[in-house]
Amino acid sequence: MKYAEVAVNAPPARPRTFTYTLSRPSTEYGVLSTEAPPPSELGTRNSELISIGCAVWVPFGSRFLQGVVFNLTDHSPVEATKAIAQVIDSRPLLRPYQIELARWIGEYYLSSYFDASSLMLPPGFERRILTFVQCLPDAPEEAAAALTPVQKKVFHLVQKNGRVDMRRLREKAPQKQLETAIKQLIYKGMVAKTVELERARVSAKMVPHIRLAVDNIQAEIAALEKRKAFKQAELLKVLTAESDALPLSTATRKSGASSVTARSLEKKGLVAIEQVRVARDPLAHRNFPVTPPPRLTPDQEAAWSKIRERLQSVGSRQSAVSSRTIDWDAGVFLLHGVTGSGKTEIYLRALEETVVHGKKAIVLVPEIALTPQTISRFASRFPGRVAVLHSKLSPGEQFDEWYRIRDGECDVVIGSRGAIFAPQPDLGLIVIDEEHEWTYKQHDKSPLYHARDVALKLAELTGAVVILGSATPDIASYHRAHTGRYHLLELPARVGEARLKGLPQVEVVDLRRELKQGNRSIFSRQLARGINEALSAGEQVILFLNRRGTASFVQCRNCGHVMRCRRCDMTLTYHAAENHLICHQCNYNIPPPTSCPECWSRRIKFLGIGTQKVEDETARAFPQARLLRWDRDVTRGRYSHE
Questions:
Q1: 236 vs 371, which has greater pLDDT?
Q2: CA–CA gap between residue 164 and residue 166 (Å, rounded)
Q3: C-alpha distance from residue 334 to each of 129, 339, 461, 474, 499 (Å)
Q4: Contact of 143 with 189, CB cutoff 8 Å
Q5: Rounded to an integer, what distance in angstroms lies between the CA atom of residue 122 and that of residue 106?
Q6: Is 512 helix (H, G, I), strand (E, B) or coil?
Q7: End-to-end CA distance of the chain
Q8: Are 494 and 503 in contact, with CB atoms under 8 Å apart?
Q9: Residue 363's beta-bridge partner residues?
Q10: What is the pLDDT of residues 589-610, one digit of tens each?
Q11: Reduced to 3 states, what is the DSSP secondary structure of residue 83?
Q12: According to the model, what pLDDT value does residue 581 have?
């Protein structure tokens, strides 16, 4: 008998799998979904339907839960096993190397295997099974007289509604009493339990398209005009001018007809209306002119020659899976280059070389804000072959991009840390720009991974080359490069005009000394002088501050009490635009207090500065300047960074 080791979406947090059999009696479970072959087929077609990486429904206690098949075996570690209820998708959603990566994440970061594998599953994958209780039409009347109070309450509620969700019933009675009551009602033949999948949160976008269904259409147009069906005739004229099917909305807009007119033509057999899948492309609103590669500097050429040599050696070897005998650290390059030294051009050359050898790549950037400018550079060199993955995309865009990547339609995937889990086939190169950034750490939910470490493990499993780029490398990466585990490549000088200007002069100003000299402004005198000089010359100024809001914290000057989040215990930040105190961890917010909640003193002080405060102070100090504040509070909307 065949068995499957399944990572189940269940509360146990430690990394482990559960064993299930592949075959079972066809009447054991009801059909859970029409999107996959019914359970009765599992016993006869298990070898075709279930393989490593498949997503399945499995019984877990009294529930059905989603799971991912991690392994198939001929032996079971336990004596009694349940059977897999249903295959969610007969095509494996995860490749073998992704299963190995999920195992490593689970064991290294101490998370469940399912949580680890869910990072790589398509958007909207996680769904629940809903349980309903409904009345049977031939329920015996004599049984109703002998019901307990809880049973009567449940039965009357179900009888009134005809069909009730178990979640609603749990609100009406304690869990233990409810389960007992329903079991008794089922035994008495008064109600029945049914299960079904909750509606998918995201799916493929289907748009109705219309096309001609006959060849000799001119005669039909003339006949319609003769009968004064001018709208129908006009719609046919629009379709004759098009070689392919048109979206129904476009056709009706061009012709001035309505969808009712189109349906009338469909009944006459003159047109065909069909649902066509339409991709939601996050880059559809942008144009990327093709740009030729620039000439490399001697420093760039030296770095590029070493990377190219490694890529060529990897390209000549068969790609795939983990080989414990090869030291893949030899395929990791630390590109240490000052700002403006041309690191991105090295990335682009490496990507071109990777594509030449029939492989694909993933490029990580630390912030979503950097993605648009990175995309424009990459899309101009790989037109139509770049995919984007980050959390600011709509669920539909994430869904379509994921399947587009899995089907091998993209040479390059660009995104923030989660893009490392993109289902990129034939992976040959991973680029991590600004590899030192803390944003590569997942810190708010399990598994708490570091994208750089995951990338190194992924490269080990696939044989891909890794390029870590930074002007200020992480100390661990720099140490590994100096001890020979990584290849260290240096770009000490800038390119182009920036090379002639050299590195900027940096000076630290002591604001305590400024305060002693009578300057109470948030700007030092030297900074104010520099801003005025730049504005007078018609230049621009960027002021950086790593704090949002107006005031960093609010304190009572009488007793010292600081306003904190009641959920996170973090200090609340005052945002003048919203006139609220906001927790930057969980978004808890309250109006600013007029008196201290501890001592009722009215000596409330707003201390510290944030980006909103800087904006207000800049407007007062430099009224001639046009201001733009760019922080998370003003970039929540779609394409707002761009």
A1: 236
A2: 6
A3: 47, 15, 20, 10, 22
A4: yes
A5: 19
A6: helix
A7: 57
A8: yes
A9: 414, 431
A10: 999 998 999 999 989 988 888 8
A11: strand
A12: 92
